[in-house]
Amino acid sequence: EDIPLELHKVRVVQKLHLVPIERRLDAIKEAGFNTFRLSTLDVYLDMLTDSGTNAMSDNQVASMLQADDAYAGSQSFIKLQKAVEDVLGKKYLLPVHQGRAAENVICRAFIKKGDIIPTNYHFTTVLAHVLENGGKIEELLHDHALVLHSDHPFKGNMDIEKLEACIQKHGVDKIPFIRMEASTNLIGGQPFSMSNLMDVRRVADKYGIMLVLDASLLGENAYLIQQREEQWKENSMADIIKMMTGLADLVYFSARKLSSSRGGGICTNRKDLYGKMEALIPLFEGFLTYGGISVREIEAMAVGLRETLDETMISQSPSFIKYLVESLDKLGIPVVTPPGVLGAHVDAMAFCPHIPQTEYPAGALAAAFYLISGIRGMERGTISSVRDENGDEILADVELLRLAVPRRVFTLSQVKYVIDRLAWLYENRDMIGGLKFVYEPPVLRFFMGGLEPT
Ligand code: F0G
Predict the structure, then answer these.
(1) How confident is the model at residue 97 (pLDDT cuts 50, 70, 90)?
(2) Does the interface ipTM go beyond 0.90?
(3) Pocket probe mutation, ligand 1, options 48, 51, 190, max atoms within 8 Å of Cβ
(4) Co-location of 218 and 328 in the same domain
(5) Confidence of residue 351 (pLDDT cuts 50, 70, 90)
(6) Which of 5, 155, 309, 341 could be cross-linked to 145 through a Cys-Cys bond (beta carbons 3.0 to 4.6 Å apart)?
(7) How far is the CA of 252 from the centre of ligand 1 (A)?
(8) Which Pfam families match (predicted)?
(9) How far is CA 102 from the centre of its chain?
(10) How far apart are the C-alpha atoms of 310 and 303, rounded to whole Å?
């Protein structure tokens, strides 16, 4: 058996609660069958997300005690700037309180009404900000990207012909930037290749369009480039990351993911782009040397960014995910392959073929899985989608139950418990029924929406 080895030891721990199934039934009803609304007191393994839940290192925690508390001119910010320059190769840094705040600033600064943003694939928060500013997203994945059970190593690649066609169709004036998302979150944490990013850059140069990289899951994408792309297998994480960020004009990230801390950032080497966004930071985030982030977290971010270059750290989550995905696959449980990053992604439409997509199979599976295991996953399907101008559902391309594996948080026996419970539920999948909304917020409805069985 290919057992993933932890190259760290556990020194600080937190107690978990595995409450009885009777309590779990009440808990999921009280939560409106929405796992976002569960209390952690009712959750055994929290696999909702890796956002802000990755383990910090001893050096990160230690750095927080040295933070320089100052509204302006904090030395902690200088340390972060230096780390961004060393690791991401960008001189100018705008701090923001998290990833979507970066999206708010970038979209406000560059999008005008009627604009089109070509992207490999949307993320929920960036889609909301593009729409908010009167723009539209065009998704340009290869056709094979949505083949859930596949052995394509780079399902996050952008289709270069589709990109050319998109630019020809809408014209350069309507396209303020092209957005590439590292480790394409919503299709199962699937990476793009370096050669694909280089091709996108070539098209961007040909038409003089800016290239924006969402680097929230950059470390893992770089790690999978090293593992899967022949030309890069001898290169260090430092080389690969610098090459990736060097291809983009503007790089932004959620530090809740990249660097295992909190906060976020936008960075660039272009003073003109920096100048277009600078004034928005004090307006929405805070002064330019903290951007709504506590200085302690800024210190942890600086250390965490540097630790991203450590292969023994960055490989931990992908290697556990690989173990989880391959074990589920062997048992015949429908799961997204090849294994990606962030978590394992169960194909809910294949798991629950008896539930129509309008009754949210991924949401139904997430609720049922919590009930029988105490494990909290996240719906990534139509509940996470939006309605069109007429109020009709836009059915998601894929219906996934995401089981996040935050870095260095779970043990292998806990991962085995996930496999055991999911296998049991698969045997008994006929028991799972569909859901309908009883409370539907107008924006990002998946966060606080309430549902009930149909
Ligand atoms: N971009 C990507 C690729 C993300 O995965 C996220 C967050 C964001 C931007 C927004 O960052 O949460 O700091 O505002 N993803 C989290 C998740 C929420 O659970 O996948 P944020």
Answers:
(1) very high
(2) yes
(3) 51
(4) no
(5) very high
(6) 155
(7) 11
(8) Beta_elim_lyase
(9) 14
(10) 12
**Residue 264 Cα: closest atom of ligand 1:** 13
Atom of ligand 1 nearest to the CA of 52: 13
449 is a domain residue? yes
| Long-range contacts, stretch 142-147, CB < 8 angstroms, 24+ apart | 145/121, 145/184, 145/187, 145/190, 146/187, 146/397, 146/398
Which of these is catalytic: 179, 257, 262, 296?
257
Quote the pLDDT of residue 1. Answer: 74
133 and 43 housed in the same domain: no
Query: Which pLDDT tens digit goes with each residue over 259-291?
Result: 999 999 999 999 999 999 999 999 999 999 999
Active-site residue 347, yes or no? no
Pocket (CB within 6 angstroms of ligand 1): 49, 51, 98-100, 123, 125, 181, 185, 214, 216-217, 254, 256-257, 264
Same domain, 41 and 62: no
Question: Is 8 inside a domain boundary?
Answer: no
Nearest Cα to 323, choosing from 407, 419, 249?
Answer: 419
Q: What is the mean pLDDT of residues 314-324?
A: 97
> Same domain for 185 and 227?
yes
What stretches of 115-207 adopt beta strand conformation (E)? 116-119, 136-139, 177-181
**Number of domains, the chain:** 2
Which residues are paired to 453 by β-bridges?
435
C-alpha distances in Å from residue 179, one per residue of 160, 183, 207, 430: 13, 13, 15, 40
The last residue of one of the domains, among 291, 309, 327, is: 309
Same domain, 158 and 230: yes
> Looking at residue 2, what is its pLDDT?
84
